[in-house]
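hey so u asked for the seq, here:
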Amino acid sequence: MTKASLKILFDNAVDRLYRDTFNAIPYKISYFRVRSKKDHDSKTVLFYPEKPVSFHVIYKICHILGYKITNNVNARADLVIKFEDKTFSPVDNILFRISESNKILNLRCDDISKEKVDRIFKHVFGYGLCIDPEKHENYVRKSNYNGKHDGVIIAEPTKPETGFVYQLLINNRHGSHVKDMRAPIINGEIPFILLKYNSIEDRFGHMKESVMAEAGAEFNPMEINKILEFTSMMGLDIGALDILRDRDSGKIYIVDVNNTPYGPAGHRSDIGFKKALTTLAESFKENYFT
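ran it, structure tokens below
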């Protein structure tokens, strides 16, 4: 059996396991069955080169809306999304061929490394996050690759290591926690913000709690315009950003770009989970199918 075949089997197994667990929760069963089949739109979304599974946000959005998900490049599709859970994902020949007759979301989003994020951020905002570790104290070292959650605080100057970036330590303390902001992006819009709270000791780990807020409640109009300019330059049509605000300077910093986000996670209540997914699904449908 080839490596590609094994990967397909593994992905399908994980998908079934997650879906079974997801649907076993009573409130989620009732929520995803509130719409009958006749209310669903018969739309098909083509994802390539990878197909999202049920822990991806876009999978849940399509599931709620009743949209069919396919990975078959020869199938009829109403929308095409470049989807690959990798930091570097250059356009291949198949995507290039499809793009000649179809608009492909996230086609230009081929590099979400920390280095590129900081380079584009500095171009748009006029200041950056990355520093020279040999000239600073109390800074953060993390992998240049996306989704590693391996950040550590380093107290003294050190020589840089290949594969890592070195960044300012942002003071995003909020009481006894640290506060991150996740901004979903759909077609140049920010439907809402998820305020994410972690313990100070686990500031680089996965979020433990989140609540929804309006984008305008966390960012001023100039910041929102620059955030959307940044997403455009990154080629991010649909996905999510992680943003920090430094309490000392008042400045915001975009620290991560994700074009295959998981979640939405961290909600303490069923209501919060439902509202976040409903808002995302409605925004997706309004932007691409109305």
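Residues 3-23 form the longest helix (21 residues). The two ends are 44 Å apart (CA to CA).
lmk if thats what u needed
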